[in-house]
Design brief:
Elements (H helix, E strand, L loop, with lengths): L1 H32 L5 H11 L10 E2 H8 L3 H13 L3 E5 L7 E5 L1 H22 L2
Antiparallel strand pairs: 1-3, 2-3
Length: 130
């Protein structure tokens, strides 16, 4: 019976984590929508903003981004195409591997990220406070 209680506590904790994630994701989508973004869009911009500078070394390979934002490569490719269409990112060939694609922020993307960063961080602070 003790194992059953421990197991149930584990499941309850897991479901609490899932619920918190869902609530936070919905709130991020709601507030970021005012800026023309969804939570996944912002996550990609946020990852790309970590690398500074005008050279290709400030870009991430698509595979690197997908590992950090937890999207499949196909979903990420569609998202990057949309961000590129909006002028927020640009894609280029990877110098080390001509089959690879690198993605970097444009000036417009960097400006939007800077504008929206405090909004996203405020939501995280509010939703994840203990």
């Amino acid at each position: 019976m003790a194992a059953n209680k421990a197991e149930q506590a584990l499941v309850t904790r897991w479901r609490g984590i899932l619920a918190l994630h869902a609530r936070t994701q919905c709130e991020l989508d709601r507030v970021l929508h005012r800026h023309g973004l969804c939570a996944s869009d912002f996550e990609v911009l946020d990852v790309l903003a970590e690398r500074r500078g005008p050279s290709s070394s400030c870009a991430f390979r698509v595979q690197e981004i997908s590992e950090r934002v937890h999207l499949s490569q196909s979903a990420l490719s569609r998202l990057v195409a949309r961000l590129e269409k909006d002028g927020l990112v640009e894609r280029g060939l990877c110098a080390e591997d001509r089959r690879g694609v690198r993605v970097s922020l444009t000036a417009k993307g960097r400006a939007l990220h800077g504008e929206v960063l405090p909004v996203q961080r405020a939501v995280l602070t509010r939703m994840l406070a203990d």
